[in-house]
Amino acid sequence: MSWEKNIRKVVPYIPGEQPDFENMIKLNTNENPYPPAPGVKRVMDEFPPDKLRLYPSVDGGELSRVLAERYGRSVKETFVGVGSDDVLAVAFLTCFDSEKPILFPDITYSFYDVWADLYRIPYERIPLDDSFRIRKEDYVRENGGIVIANPNAPTSVAMGLSDIEYIVANNPESIVIIDEAYVDFGGESAIALLDRYDNLIVVQTFSKARSMAGMRIGYAFACEKLIEAMNDVKFSINSYTMNQTSLFYGVEAVKDEEYFRTNLEKVIKTRENTVAELDKLGFSTLPSSTNFIFTTHESIPASRIFEELRKSNIFVRHFNKKRIDNYLRVTIGTDEQMKVFIQKVTEIVKSK
Ligand SMILES: *Cc1c(COP(=O)(O)O)cnc(C)c1O
User: Fold this and answer.
1) How far does residue 83's CA lie from ligand 1's centre (Å)?
2) How far is the CA of 181 from the centre of ligand 1 (A)?
3) Distance (Å) from CA 82 to ligand 1 centroid
4) Is 137 helix (H, G, I), strand (E, B) or coil?
5) Would you call the peptide bond into 127 cis, given omega within 30 degrees of 0 as the criterion?
6) What is the tens place of the pLDDT at every residue in 144-203?
7) In a designed cystine with 87, which of 59, 81, 216, 274 is the match (CB 3.0 to 4.6 A)?
8) Does ligand 1 come within 6 angstroms of the Cβ of 153?
9) Is the sign of the CA dihedral 36, 39, 45, 49 positive or negative?
10) Which tens digits make up the pLDDT trace of 201-220?
11) Which pTM value belongs to this model?
């Protein structure tokens, strides 16, 4: 077609599939197996339809206020978006406008290189070490910005806060984005560093720890000046990104701290039990600080286990990528789901 040369060509991010079978066990996209806080259901019945006539507040309104309060920041240091994917995309577009390459690990959230390509940001992938850890020293070199998922995905491995601080402190001319999608399951949040560093953005989400992937809510904290810059970019694309219902329901999820803690503890306990069971079956699992595990078997190829599980309607994630193609990423489900998962894996291992 003659117009083709004018079209922006991108290789898109490939999300985990969303199969929809009865009796399936879905452990492939790191959703939370438990429902959102009970308050969310309560306000679903109370949502005034008349609210839908009006455009939502552009700054997240009450949701920004409760988030700021919960995390000890001010509203002007708070940004909300349509899932953290939206927040991260705006942060990339706002903060990575240098000729120098941005840095991120070779094995990490596979959206980072997609945004970089889309926005024409040069980038360099820094290899994780042999135990899939980030070496902080590797991030002290010329760069146009840094993005690190902590805990990292799909490895599940967390980096200590002092190592994060080392990277932030040694890059005063770059913006460092820390993507904390999984931090509540065992990581240490870099929000604690925000008082001391103005080159840091911490991004979190309602999708994992708050059981609301379907609602699409993400948020970020940074110094006022950075949040202002991100809002300028956001308002240049679409001012009203947050719909009235997510603002309304999101507030309730933040308010219920006790439910949040209980939910996290359940997932963590199930994770530890699952790892112990997999150990007995000849798997090695990386130390997880997330709601998923990254595991490999001593003799059976990951691709085969993946296919066998799939035949039984148990969905996990397998990445056909260098260095990690013999690993499976398994989301932690309920105890009952993980029991069925372990039973099936036991059959696969015994029948080899
Ligand atoms: C799940 C995930 C996100 C995005 O989640 P949203 O649903 O868009 O909030 C971002 N980063 C990482 C590393 C993730 O795993």
Assistant:
1) 7
2) 5
3) 11
4) helix
5) no
6) 999 999 999 999 999 999 999 999 999 999 999 999 999 999 999 999 999 999 999 999
7) 81
8) yes
9) negative
10) 999 999 999 999 999 999 99
11) 0.97
